[in-house]
Amino acid sequence: MKLKKTLFAGIAAVVSASTLLGSNVASAQKDWPTKSVQLVVPFAAGGPTDTIARLIAVPMGQSLGQTVVVENVPGAGGTIASTKVARAAPDGYTIYIHHMGMATAQALYDKLPYDPMTSFEYIGQVADVPMVLLGKKDLPANNFKELEAYIKANGSKVTMANAGPGAVSQLCGLLFQSRMGVRLTNIPYKGTGPALTDLLGGQVDLLCDQTTQTIPYIKDGRVKAFGTTTMKRLPAIPNVPTLNEQGLKGFEVKVWHGVYAPKGTPQPILDKINAALKKALNNPDVKKRLEDANIDIVPAEKISAKGLKDHLDREINVWGPVIRKANIPD
């Protein structure tokens, strides 16, 4: 009898401790956040991803009641930052914003220390940055049909700049060449800045670049715009047709961005982060500043875990074959 009482007492103590632990965990999730949240950016300050991160950080912090601090962790095409976040404590105090590089990493790098599809919790897509296929001012072609003929006639004599191995500008250029059935001479630079400078100076023929820095040059006539990489024409340059409507059916490249958290982050916390993200993207000031930078906020249904996960899966299937076929880096 004494043994039975002792056993029951032990069980009761374990149940009580478990209940208390569960209560503490639930309370911690309910009270979250109680300190600042780190929003990790995988690139240096000043780029499009960093710009978006800083625009949403302040209103997200206001919604959460704690400061959201942007932390730049550049290097290795986002691998360093992605690994840092994947290994961070799943407590909601470390979140991550990354662009389409999350979808290209597996094809670009051997033996990644994380898995884009399994190492993170998905919070939602954020915004898309469209791209434009540009040509130097004195290129003989004046429209896409003439560009097609020029490329077919000159082949590898045509030069195409990019921002380096794995950069979005390189991927866009390789997809363009794949769809055109040609191989141009690809010239890598250390960033889109110097690549665009040489395009403006006439040292290279073509460049696929983001609208955030190219629209002024298009409007000033300093470069030729042969087509946007979107399904619909862009309001900022309505006279520039899409590549899709000019024969490259389904050609779409956007520098999309998503927000993630370490795998295992509790759902109640993920829900709070998602709500703060949605509120930030509905902030009138944020919307105007993104619009002024030619950055498109994604539709509401994409600002969700499912929206981001489904999009990432599709993008991996799009870019994997392109990267492997091109044998990047080249």
TrEMBL record:
<feature type="signal peptide">
    <location>
        <begin position="1"/>
        <end position="28"/>
    </location>
</feature>
<dbReference type="Pfam" id="PF03401">
    <property type="entry name" value="TctC"/>
</dbReference>
<protein>
    <recommendedName>
        <fullName>Tripartite tricarboxylate transporter substrate binding protein BugD</fullName>
    </recommendedName>
</protein>
<comment type="similarity">
    <text>Belongs to the UPF0065 (bug) family.</text>
</comment>
<keyword id="KW-0732">Signal</keyword>
<dbReference type="InterPro" id="IPR042100">
    <property type="entry name" value="Bug_dom1"/>
</dbReference>
<dbReference type="InterPro" id="IPR005064">
    <property type="entry name" value="BUG"/>
</dbReference>
